[in-house]
Amino acid sequence: MATLTVPPSVPSPAEDAEQLQKAFAGWGTNEDLIISILAHRNAVQRKLIRQTYAETYGEDLLKALDKELSSDFERSVLLWTLDAAERDAFLTNEATKKLTSSNWVLMEIACTRSSMELFMARQAYHARYKKCLEEDIAYHTTGDFRKLLVPLASTFRYEGPEVNMALARSEAKILHEKIHEQAYNHDELIRIVTTRSKAQLNATLNHYNNEFGNAINKDLKADPNDEFLKLLRSAIKCLTCPEKHFEKVLRLAINKLGTDEWALTRVVTTRAEVDMQRIKEQYHKRNSVPLDRAIANDTSGDYKEMLLALVGHEGA
Amino acid sequence: MATLTVPPSVPSPAEDAEQLQKAFAGWGTNEDLIISILAHRNAVQRKLIRQTYAETYGEDLLKALDKELSSDFERSVLLWTLDAAERDAFLTNEATKKLTSSNWVLMEIACTRSSMELFMARQAYHARYKKCLEEDIAYHTTGDFRKLLVPLASTFRYEGPEVNMALARSEAKILHEKIHEQAYNHDELIRIVTTRSKAQLNATLNHYNNEFGNAINKDLKADPNDEFLKLLRSAIKCLTCPEKHFEKVLRLAINKLGTDEWALTRVVTTRAEVDMQRIKEQYHKRNSVPLDRAIANDTSGDYKEMLLALVGHEGA
């Protein structure tokens, strides 16, 4: 369900590294050449190119890209070139910094990655920032946001398909009670959302819907402007149907006056190799326009070409 | 600093497996032979013996031991034979069960293992129990105990030597304020104890001691019988000088009328390959009697021989 397209016959990492070096050399940069290479190599291939580039030219490819490129195009190429764990470490670190702080990004990464992907991001965080992810999240958040985000980012959820139906019933009841009491930050509600496996949580929420007549996210909309409730609803959406979450992020980013390039770049670079096909379907269904056309109408230049290559439709 | 002794020339796993099978065969069991093999093989060697045994005799070695042995001796051999991650998963699972529940064991394992060891125990927990460790801890604890234990068990602390002295000063101040207000379960106190690296925490506590005149654990003794404060003090001890914690557990286990074999077995089997040498030194210093003599006086039979072999002094 990735949208990344890799040509049937791929040049060797040494050839790719050489072409990239040529794209940087001389006056001006050959952006088309950079896109034609990097946007059409999978994670393993990009990693080998980076290794080979460093060995051959004595410079990290990311440094070279950083020198040659700028603005949104630069950010999209850099994020894409990082491997998934490093990229998540980078994005979460950014999200704990004052000027770029974002509870949304923290929640999205904690809830939409597999348990092992999240753990590898935490390992990459150690390596790069000499700290752990959860200490930065805990330090930079307070109150209910901290209470929800720290366990979301620290958990190592079980991922098997096993579901305990009796537990699903009893925990659906707990959730309903707490929501009815408007105790949205109750320990038990946080415990269920932050520790149960996605399969178990799904069973609990299905039971909630059947038994109490509403989807839980409808009941969590008492005050539609409450920021904590918004984050909680999005966390539940990310845990149970991530493509709907990503569709909404893309929709808001594109429909916004001026386009939210940070969100657009984040979703495209983090999902192109994972579930972008599903997100595209969801987007088309919800907006009656294909995602690539929406992106093409809203962006321009090399940035546009890069995003379109990653969502699988060049020259749209 | 392990106390495990492995002979200079070790038989092949196939020979060891064959000897073990002979020890089980016939009328009665040859406990001495079992001890002479298993109590003198390191983790890698025991793992190979278990694999070879299963391949050769079509039965898990642990099953066979379970059939042949009984009571405290059985528990010590089984725990020792498990690899460290499986053993920690087993002990923490036991500690979340009603009849064997123990916040102490959960705290001890969460705070004295390296970040990677704790993570591997959490992986082993998935594999064996089809659930995650933190969901069982969260489900089986409440209130302040949950608030402390879940993040302790979920964190993946940074382990580098880097220390931020300005942060140590500011967080020592926060700790002192909260303790002064008797807000022992305050979010900020929990955050610092559960997320900072051991090196950073140590710097913070040194600064606390220098600046405020008391070691933190002295200030946390307002009510010496408060169970939460006891657990918090022990967590701090485990994070900063684990050998003192283990010495105390052994001392209480041995001095207790009737001996606490569960604690004794747990500490010996989990530390023999890690830091038992330091624990022995600490024990001797604190009790003016060597640990092996204390164990020999307090236990008997095969169980005694097994423990003595693991602490590095047979036939004491």
Automatic annotation (TrEMBL), chains A, B:
Parts of the chain that traverse the membrane: none
Keywords: Annexin, Calcium, Calcium/phospholipid-binding, Metal-binding, Repeat
Signal peptide: none
InterPro entries per UniProt: Annexin (IPR001464), Annexin_repeat (IPR018502), Annexin_repeat_CS (IPR018252), Annexin_sf (IPR037104), AnnexinD_plant (IPR009118)
The keyword Repeat appears for this protein: yes
Annotated residues for binding of Ca(2+) 1: 24, 26, 28, 68, 254, 256, 258, 296, 299
UniProt cross-references to SUPFAM superfamilies, sorted A to Z: Annexin
A Pfam family that the UniProt record links to this protein: Annexin
Family: Belongs to the annexin family.
Notes concerning its domains: A pair of annexin repeats may form one binding site for calcium and phospholipid.
Protein name: Annexin
